[in-house]
Write a structure and sequence with these properties.
about 130 residues, alpha+beta, Alpha-Beta Plaits, 5 strands
Length: about 130
């Protein structure tokens, strides 16, 4: 029974795949998102968490449109941890760049208000 419990707990941890994210203000209209994902996240899952966090932060800062200006990825082969960094530029709706910008609301989907309320994702399964 104990072995089964530990196996189920380990499986639950792998499926949920934890990720941590830091956001650093760079300028009045830009910030950096740095995400580290557990081995189960992989690079794609870690990138997804970083991108969704960027969209949440854009909305929290009173905007909808944004452009990713910088993107870095990393992978530690020894620990299996993936890293994703993104520099995000807020775009004003009246700016010439608006036609090429991404919408944070569309990125987060129809339930974007609840996603923003919950904050940055901590799992790669969203």
């Amino acid at each position: 029974m104990t072995l089964r419990f530990f196996a189920m707990t380990a499986l639950a941890l792998i499926v949920s795949a934890c990720a941590t994210t830091d956001v650093q203000q760079l300028t009045q209209t830009s910030f950096k998102v740095s995400t580290r994902g557990a081995p189960a996240c992989g690079s794609a899952g870690t990138r997804n968490v970083a991108f969704r966090t960027a969209a949440v932060e854009v909305i929290r800062r009173g905007h909808d449109l944004f452009i990713i200006e910088g993107d870095t990825t990393g992978y530690d082969g020894w620990s299996g941890v993936s890293e994703q960094g993104m520099v995000v530029q807020l775009i004003d709706a009246n700016s010439p760049e608006a036609s090429n910008a991404l919408s944070a609301r569309q990125t987060l989907g129809a339930d974007w208000q609840n996603v923003v309320r919950e904050g940055a994702p901590t799992t790669c399964t969203t």
